[in-house]
Design a protein that fits this description.
The complex is a heterodimer of chains A (460) and B (216).
Chain A lengths: L1 H5 L3 H4 L10 H13 L5 H27 L14 H25 L9 H21 L26 H34 L3 H11 L6 H34 L11 H27 L8 H31 L3 H12 L3 H13 L7 H4 L2 H27 L15 H24 L5 H16 L1
Helix pairs in contact in A: 3-17, 4-16, 5-6, 5-9, 5-10, 5-15, 6-7, 6-16, 7-8, 7-9, 9-10, 10-11, 10-15, 11-12, 12-13, 13-15
Chain B lengths: L7 H29 L1 H4 L13 H7 L4 H4 L14 H8 L10 H9 L19 H6 L4 H5 L16 H9 L23 H10 L8 H4 L2
Helix pairs in contact in B: 5-6
The chains are: A mainly alpha (460), B mainly alpha (216).
């Protein structure tokens, strides 16, 4: 400790990435006790209960949708996509932070990722689950969703491979699969720790099966590190590809406001923006509730805030280019899109979006804001709202005024669209509550590795 | 602390992970085969009829032309099932007392049509027209099989959409000279692929594969 005070390494000036009082034993105790302590907090039950109630609302909305059909939503011609696809893109975007943190930051050796990657990856999986519901539900005939899968069918017709919608199916499918694999492979050594520490026999058996016979042998570790790096390499292109292809759903169409070449990078930046906002939204209450401030330190929050600020600036550039191109194109329809956003009947959504996504996040330049968990929490909520509005503006507001004024119409979401949206938030939170209680939300073995690395750094 | 798992669990879990791949692949293969099997398609299954009418006898032995009974096939979407009167053209004299023909006699007397069991039933959401296929040189036996060898009628083909599309994508496989359309013993091998392609061209066969051509 004395060396630390005499000659502080650069990292310590911005606060440590792990509380120096932690050691191997206390890290393991701290994280595994959240899972293995018998008896569950009242707070957990309250949170899970409320979320589960929302899951029931979701199931109810889906039942009504199946029984009565898409007509219970406010969709019309020309607004054939609105809440459904807005929510789909929103959820998929949120997932991106998990992949970025787990894959790209791993390859870039950003050691601050270790204590947030596990639940960011879990968040990715749960967000993708919520996202996947929407394309299925908006089909009208959801029982035929498997027509998207290219299989040798008796009708002799294959999916339309030239359609971005089928690319989307593959992109999101790959994304879900690789994220699940990455998350599970990352869990294996920790599952073995839980198996060894569990006092309940059934828990030991279940964790034991999931740990797949992990024995901590040197050979295990050697192969494990290789596999983990390879998976990270596989997941890295997904950070960019998934939302690029989601953006093709729009950019390949001819609707003014969709037919924009900047969409792929602009969507990817937006996804990272909203994803990091969601990680903060979840991490800040979690670290307070479970006393994890020593593992998810203010330095983590500060770093995430900086990533968010950068992504936000790229998104702002995207908005600027959209506006510039609509003017520069010299095309009346493109110009009208921008005027309609600024002055049309949905102008409130566009102005709110600019305030939420560009103006308020400029507060992140201030170190005081970045080091205040409460300020960051509120900001992250605002950005989540802003990113939702962005997708709504792109999708519904572009559609409601297409080329022919005779087909213009207004879109108003119905009760069932709101209830489904709120219901999927409930699904997301329920899965998250279960995850917190049943699996280690912070990677135990990686934090232990980090302790060794930090000790080395100090001794140098 | 005692071991949770017996050492045999290692083998068991390896086998189950390895086996799962084959179980899933096998289940999908079986599903695909079942869907194409006569059990699901109803192919090669002779159906009970009110009168055991034999195409083998009437077409194969007697040599009736298809159009003697199915009169509308050249001009209409459906190839009609003949009225009882058509049967009575001959059977008022031939086998008039046979108990096998009693339902036909009764139908003729009571003026109530015979209720045949339909063998070739295309779903209502698919539009099919016999006359255009006849005009473009698609023979009866191409779809209905060798009816001259069927004592009771059965379905020779699956009627799956892929089966429709296979011909619509390669009409040369199914075409024959117009004068051979009603022949039950036309030899498909008698024309070379080039000669068939010539027929496709000369009959102006432009078989469609758009969704809305059949799903109107």
């Amino acid at each position: 400790m004395s060396t630390l005070q005499e000659n502080p390494p650069p990292s310590s000036r911005r606060g440590p990435i792990i509380d120096p009082d932690y050691n191997f034993g206390s890290v393991t105790d701290k994280i595994s006790s959240i899972v293995l302590t018998p008896g569950t907090h009242m707070g957990w039950w309250l949170g899970f209960g409320a979320s589960f109630l929302l899951v029931m609302v979701m199931l109810w909305s889906i039942a009504v949708l199946f029984a009565r059909g898409i007509g219970v939503w406010g969709l019309n011609v020309p607004v054939g996509w609105a809440f459904d696809i807005t929510n789909f893109v929103w959820w998929i975007g949120i997932g991106h932070a998990g992949t970025l943190i787990s894959a790209i930051l791993l390859l870039l050796r950003q050691d601050w990722r270790t204590s947030i990657n596990r639940f960011a990856e879990a968040m990715t999986l749960f967000a993708v689950s919520c996202a996947l519901l929407y394309p299925l539900l908006h089909l009208g005939r959801p029982s035929y969703f498997y027509f998207l899968i290219p299989y040798p069918a008796t009708h002799g017709v294959w999916p339309q491979f030239r359609s971005p919608l089928i690319w989307d199916f593959f992109a999101v499918g790959t994304y879900g699969t690789v994220s699940l694999l990455f998350w599970y492979v990352g869990l294996i050594p920790d599952l073995a720790t839980l198996r060894d520490r569990a006092r309940n026999r059934y828990a030991a058996i279940i964790y034991g099966i999931l740990a797949m016979g992990w024995r901590n042998s040197a050979r295990h570790w050697m192969r494990y590190q290789k596999a983990y790096l390879l998976l990270a390499g596989l997941a890295t292109p997904l950070v960019v590809s998934v939302h690029t292809i989601v953006s093709f759903d729009f950019a390949a169409g001819i609707v003014p406001g969709w037919h924009v070449t900047i969409f792929p990078p602009y969507f990817v930046a937006g996804a990272i923006y909203s994803g990091f906002a969601m990680v903060l939204t979840l991490a800040i209450p979690l670290r307070a509730a479970y006393g994890l401030q020593g593992l998810v330190t203010e330095r983590h929050l500060d770093n995430m805030a900086k990533v968010m600020l950068t992504a936000g600036l790229v998104v702002a550039y995207g908005y600027l280019m959209e506006a510039f191109m609509s003017w520069y194109s010299g095309n009346v329809f493109e110009q009208y899109v921008m005027l309609n956003r600024l002055q049309g009947p949905y102008r409130y959504t566009y102005w709110a979006l600019l305030i939420c996504n560009i103006i308020i996040p400029q507060l992140l330049w201030s170190r005081a804001v970045r080091s205040s968990p409460i300020a960051l929490f509120i900001l992250s909520l605002i950005i989540n709202v802003g990113m939702w509005l962005e997708r709504f503006v792109i999708i519904a507001v572009s559609l409601h005024r297409d080329f022919l004024p005779s087909s213009w119409d207004m879109y108003t979401p119905t009760f069932w669209e709101w209830s489904l949206y709120i219901g999927t938030i409930g699904l997301f939170l329920s899965l998250l509550f279960l995850f917190i209680r049943l699996l280690p939300m912070i990677s135990i073995f990686e934090v232990r590795e980090l302790l060794v690395e930090e000790a080395h750094r100090e001794s140098e | 602390m005692p071991q949770i798992f017996h050492p045999s669990m290692n083998t068991l879990s390896r086998v189950s992970i390895f086996g799962a791949v084959f179980i899933v692949a096998g289940a999908l293969t079986v599903l695909a085969l079942v869907v194409r099997s006569p059990y699901v398609t109803g192919q090669n299954l002779a159906l009970d009829q009110p009168v055991p009418f034999s195409h083998e006898h009437h077409v194969g032995d007697v040599g009736l032309d298809c159009r003697y009974c199915h009169t509308s096939v050249e001009h209409a979407a459906t190839a009609n099932v003949p009225p009882t009167k058509t049967c009575m053209n001959c059977h008022s004299q031939l086998f008039a007392d046979s108990p096998m023909l009693a339902p036909v006699q009764k139908s003729y007397r009571d003026k109530t049509p015979l209720e045949w069991t339909r063998v070739h039933d295309v779903p209502d959401f698919a539009y099919f027209n016999h006359s255009i296929h006849i005009q473009k040189g698609v023979g009866c036996t191409t779809c209905h099989g060798q009816v001259n060898e069927m004592p009771l009628m059965w379905r020779d083909q699956s009627l799956y959409m892929k089966w429709c599309l296979d011909c619509h994508r390669n009409p040369a496989d199914a075409v024959r000279p117009r004068e051979e359309v009603f022949s039950v013993d036309w030899d498909a091998e008698s024309l070379s692929p080039e000669e068939r392609q010539k027929l496709v061209d000369s009959y102006h066969i432009e078989s469609k594969t758009d969704c809305y051509h059949c799903h109107r």
